Amino acid sequence: MGRIELQRGNIPQSIEYFKKAISLLPYHYSNFGISHSMFSDFLASAYYRAGDLDNALHEYSSIISSATGRSDNPDICAKSLYMLGKIYEQQGQKAKALEYYQKFLDLWKDADPGLPEVEDARQRLSKAP
Question: Is the pTM of this model over 0.90?
């Protein structure tokens, strides 16, 4: 339901659904490729789209700090690094943003070179002094 509301642009309702879904999950939930980090990614994305950078930062940070997030969904973990770079950049923390863009590219350096996130991170790093 959270994804449906997010797609519809009903961000506040999607956030409520994602928060409820996460609250109902056991701490180390992982079944059929669905994990806590997947729900946290959806919630972080909704916060980001709502312009709530602090809560988006918190959710993306929780994904990269979670052992299950890194092992169960490494692609979500990598994307979280990219999103942390974007958030820090928007908050005016350029050095931290560049650090996270670099971490993202270190993980994805040989994978999916055509992905928009990879190209965007490369461009942002190339513009750095």
Answer: no
